[in-house]
Design goal:
Bound molecules: zinc ion
Shape: elongated
CATH superfamily of the largest domain: Recombination protein O, C-terminal domain
Structural class: alpha+beta
Largest sheet: 5 strands, antiparallel
Order of helices and strands: EEEEEHHHEEEHHH
């Protein structure tokens, strides 16, 4: 018999990709970053693991590792589900967070470990009833920052001045001051929105519930940042459209 090592993983289920008739590939994010495993029979109605593998469940997953490193689920233990299924805005944002988190950390196993505590904080905040749109904006900014696409929000990205910040340039990667404004494709921004960017890209862990944003600005910021995301990664987050139409 082949030598199979048992591996225990902890994480939040983000996405399941159906395979064959009843199996699925399950993507998760945990304290050690992104991981995925193969789950046999999980899409059968009577599967004992179905609850533990539902989206946004924080659980423990005992897997066997083949020599090639592929993990196959042996047993799942769901500890907590974050889905706020009594609130449509919250569901739309949670969908968005699942798509964002499972797509932005895609290059290698283990990526996204530094983002995981923020995701946990975000899901706890939504579950408690904190404004989900503000959380969506913050998470998008933090995920971009953690993957190396953060924006310079402390000073003008061109001349380093901290005075008279008036615009943002996504192609240059940060704030633009009044003197430098207009040299490229800068978009002049409302002061409120600039403050939101500064707050989001500098946000430390544990302060996500400190401020919420006005709805029209949260939506405007999300649309703008998602466009930046698409420019960086070459595809759009489809769940944003659903979020905008329904929130
Ligand atoms: Zn400048």
């Amino acid at each position: 018999m082949a030598n199979l090592e048992t591996v225990k993983k902890i994480g939040i289920v983000l996405h399941k990709t159906p395979v064959k008739e009843a199996d699925a590939m399950v993507n998760c994010l945990g304290p050690d970053g992104r991981f995925s495993f193969y789950a046999r029979g999980v899409r059968k109605a009577k599967s004992k693991n179905a609850f533990s593998l539902s989206e946004l469940t924080l659980g423990e997953f005992a897997c066997v590792s083949s020599t090639g490193g592929l993990l196959t689920l042996k047993e799942a233990y769901g500890n907590r589900n974050f889905l706020k299924d009594d609130d449509f805005d919250a569901i739309a944002v949670e969908n968005f967070l699942c798509e964002l988190s499972s797509h932005i950390f895609f290059e290698e196993e283990g990526e996204g470990a530094s983002y995981y505590p923020y995701l946990l904080e975000a899901l706890e905040a939504i579950k408690e009833g904190f404004d989900p749109l503000s959380i969506a904006f913050l998470c998008l900014a933090i995920a971009l920052r953690e993957v190396g696409y953060g924006l310079e929000v402390n000073c003008c990205v061109r001349c380093k001045s901290r005075e008279h910040i008036t615009a943002i340039s996504f192609s240059d990667g940060g704030f633009i001051c009044l003197s430098c404004y207009g040299q490229g494709e800068d978009s002049a921004e409302d002061e409120y929105l600039l403050r939101m960017y500064r707050y989001a890209f500098r946000l430390p862990l544990g302060l996500m519930r400190k401020n919420s944003f006005r709805k029209e600005f949260a939506l405007a910021g999300l649309i703008e940042l998602e466009k930046y995301f698409a420019d960086c990664f070459g595809y759009h987050l489809n769940s944003l459209r659903f979020l905008i139409e329904n929130c």
